[in-house]
Specification:
heterotetramer; A: Electron Transport Ethylamine Dehydrogenase; three-stranded antiparallel beta sheet; 14% helix; B: mainly beta; Thrombin, subunit H
Chain lengths: 170, 381, 381, 170
């Protein structure tokens, strides 16, 4: 037994949860979705800005949280950010991959943008890998195995991942 | 022969008689390695996902379980470009002037197996793919002359470096296509976003010219992944989300599907190929090794604890290996007494099995943090 | 106020009624922090001993247990130079042009607390001490004007940087003496190899001139370690291998021992101070916290699970805190409701206790790999 | 419980072993010893060069091994080197700290030089920290908290530590 076994155990548990609790959501329509991903504007938030909307429930620092259905990385909610904010001193990636996740509160599917926060080293907290509807890397618009920090000024160094609601999928 | 001085001292000591022996002063020396990788040595990539600027690869003697050495690879380095002769390799890596920020430099660094010292460099356009290393993210031509690296910025292109001239050839755009699958001495295929594949040729001096493009080769609802395995000079075996096998040949005017079958048959019962490097091919015997588990499509990257062994000519499952622990990456040594290597992302161990009878032989522990791609020694050239 | 756009949207949504509510598009923004560190925020250094080029420090709100942000520090970065106002700090780090090799650059990087963005730099002589960060390996002058860094190459010297002019002042040799213990606005002490201490003064523009040197202040068979704690402007408390307390004052012509007592008394029963940052001092109440365990001298760096609390005026042990898990580093917040912070090298958790009653309040987990120096927020200026 | 707890447990176990099995050996005489540390010549070894002398026993890949009484770091014996060889591609530090350890086979004390091997990142295997007779860093000749790679051409990057017999201490 070795020092990172616990990570693997956690990853395995998370994967198991993903399997048992969630059906496979409809995959996004590839290139059309990519075209709709905006280059997100960047602003400043106070740390106490509400991080969830009224129409949703759950713990944004848990890998089980509904928005994370196609995420891969460290949750910004555990890293000084939130589902829709990057930690202080990091730079959000303007482009990224998107997924479609079902909000259990209203039963609707939403397009989620998994923007990476960049320019500091890996946060290392709340690692989370779920692959509901993600695509191979030759279809990058839905691919979570890529480092999406590539579009930032600060280069490709990856700190954590957000899960921003872009809108309803239907 | 300064390296032998300790031996000489030991001999003198033995003559003196061990009863009255006192330990003698030693000289500190640096280990050297064989000129070529022995058949059961293997390189294992650790992207160090929690500390990615410190990526590295470990060299293991799988027969003894000994750790033989390592190379540092920088941020998000790709798999090693190991020459078929096994005597040298190049490492594609990215560095920042301030560790995790500042000016980015992408560089190809030359190493000799015998001493693992960083040698010459070729500076690359700072566009190298950053992400998990897959079989197609970078590849040498079979003769070791050119290194081809996939770029994603998100514009897609490839960089070619000439390892003989030790110089950059250039960067070449691709038409919405990704990754590098060599299918001949100066030819490779790419996977495109619409499910087609694109041919590309290298000129004698390494410049890329585009060749034929296929029609879409798979259904985008059940696409082939980028976790493929090469099964001959011109053929690659791809696997779809639902574990269908699609063999694509790149020797003609355009990439062509030459075989289509399923790892899991008409009644899959939830079984699925899964992992980061989920399959391995033993060319001499035409044997495919596939890491299998049960789960939905969203589990296609998850570890498996069974390795199904197929005869690719008959397309029949001929054996099954029950792994001692789950794996996301496997590889098989190329020799006639093949070893099966298995590792799981997030677990710092490489496990070694007899690939023929499935018996676990040993584990090498304390190997970094996040193992990804396993590269056995090339054999036979 | 673009940062408030989500609030506006939420308000609109509430007006629309939650029964028919649909989630609304969000805007991705970057968090900001208060101008100054609140009293219960704390920085924790992670040298990332298994991946040292990726050293970092984490900022924790100990009242909520929230992780507020981090800075990357490069290879073997030292503790942060936090200005007493808590609004800015500098990070002394080392970088290599090829990650773990190539050209070395030592640099001091400026940060503001409110945004944790790397700002200006001062390039330093590439001689910065590399090793575990201790209290004396680098220090700001009390007014935050100058940063003084210990160099070891193995020649010993100090580098001074002017944080107001944002410029290097220079490198200054020391006479076989190490480390930096400030004892006044422009004055510091150093520990020398023979057990003596050396005074040094800074001119108005930051140049170092040597001052008086003491006779040896401790027996070299039971020397004071470098794991010391400052107890007033001019006084530092040192601890010997056998847990004797030696208080040295640096306000006079030469360093002078002004107190000598023992943490463990005449019958130590094997009890010993141990760890990397084994003691902490709460200035407002004159209270010393010391991590204790039982063991021989060779265990003087080992973790302890008891914190003995002393009134330094009476030299009496007044309380004892039984930690929930062993610690190699402790620190105490500077405010009137002090928190005790505890961490163990190799365990990725910071534990928070009520420093007055010893009750464990919370733990912050998943904090890197090898935590070393803990730095509470400065308070009261 | 977290991913590196096992490292801590191992460190704690090793520390406990050090306490129970070994007495405190005589400390080296400070500066005199430092003066005797040679700038070691560097040569090439074949991987099969014997790594132990006939007059000693034990497992050089174990932290318990007698030569490691004042070591701090990763054992080169687990990293592609041995007690007296650096892993391929690394550069030995010409200067270092020394300790005095008792060889249980002959009962004699030996001066051991803990040269670091440098220029590649941390090996990460067989971490071992024992502190029998080591000194504070202001007495560097016996101090193991320093990174001794500082004297190399390749800079201060630390890979692993050796434990070379310099001679009898008496």
């Amino acid at each position: 037994m070795n020092r990172l076994d616990r990570i693997a155990e956690r990853l395995a548990r998370q994967a198991a949860r993903g399997i048992s609790r969630r059906g496979l959501l409809a995959r996004l329509g590839g290139l059309a979705a990519a075209a709709s991903v905006p280059a997100l504007p960047v602003a400043r938030a106070q740390a106490q800005t509400p991080k969830q909307q009224p129409g949703e429930k759950g713990d944004p620092s848990s890998c089980d949280y509904w928005r994370y259905c196609a995420i891969d990385g460290f949750l910004c909610s555990c890293c000084g950010g939130s589902v829709s904010t990057c930690p202080p001193g990091t730079e959000p990636s303007p482009i990224t991959w998107v997924g479609t996740c079902r909000n259990p509160v209203d039963g609707k599917d939403y397009v989620i943008s998994y923007n990476d926060c960049c320019g500091k080293a890996a946060c290392g907290r709340c690692i989370c890998n779920r692959n509901e509807g993600d695509t191979p890397i030759y279809q990058p618009q839905g691919a979570n195995d890529l480092n999406w920090c590539l579009g930032t000024q600060s280069g490709v160094v990856y700190n954590c991942s957000t899960a921003v609601v872009l809108g309803a999928a239907s | 022969m300064p390296g032998l001085r300790p031996l000489t001292l030991v001999a003198a000591l033995l003559l003196a008689g061990s009863a009255t022996a006192q330990l003698v002063p030693e000289e500190l020396v640096v280990e050297s390695l064989p000129e070529k990788l022995p058949p059961h040595w293997v390189w294992v990539n650790d992207v160090a996902f929690f500390n990615m600027s410190d990526g590295r690869a470990y060299l293991i003697d799988a027969d003894t379980g000994r750790f033989m050495g390592m190379v540092s690879g920088g941020y998000s380095h790709l798999k090693l470009g190991i020459d078929r002769r096994g005597d040298r390799f190049v490492v594609p890596g990215t560095y920042y002037s301030r560790g995790t920020r500042g000016e980015r430099t992408d560089v190809l660094t030359f190493y000799a197996t015998k001493n693992l010292e960083p040698g010459s460099e070729i500076i690359l356009p700072p566009k190298k793919y950053s992400g998990l290393p897959f079989v197609g993210t970078s590849n040498l031509t079979d003769d070791g002359r050119f290194m081809i690296i996939y770029n994603f910025t998100p514009e897609q292109s490839v960089t070619v470096a000439d390892l003989e001239r030790k110089a950059l050839v250039g960067e070449f755009e691709t038409p919405g296509c990704a990754l590098i699958y060599p299918v001949g001495p100066r030819r490779f295929m790419m996977q495109c976003g619409d499910g087609s594949m694109q041919l590309a040729n290298l000129t004698a001096d390494g410049r890329v010219t585009l060749g034929g493009v296929s029609k879409p080769l798979w259904d985008l609802d059940n696409p082939a992944t980028e976790r493929a395995v090469r099964i001959s000079e011109s053929r690659w075996m791809f696997f779809t989300f639902d574990s269908d096998v699609i063999v694509v040949d790149g020797s003609g005017d355009q990439p062509k599907v030459v075989e289509k079958w399923s790892l899991v048959g008409p009644k899959p019962d939830g079984w699925r190929l899964g992992g980061l490097q989920p399959s391995a091919y033993h060319a001499a015997t035409g044997t495919l090794y596939a890491v299998m588990h049960q789960g939905g499509r969203e589990t296609r990257k998850d570890p498996g604890q069974q390795v199904w062994v197929f005869d690719v000519r008959t397309r029949k499952k001929i054996r099954q290996i029950d792994l001692a622990s789950p794996a996301t990456s496997i590889a098989v040594s190329e020799d006639a007494k093949p070893l099966l290597y298995a590792a799981q992302f997030g677990v710092p161990s490489l496990h070694v099995y007899d690939a023929l009878n499935g018996q676990k032989l040993r584990s090498i522990d304390q190997l970094g943090q996040t193992l990804t791609y396993i590269q056995p020694a090339p054999v036979g050239q």
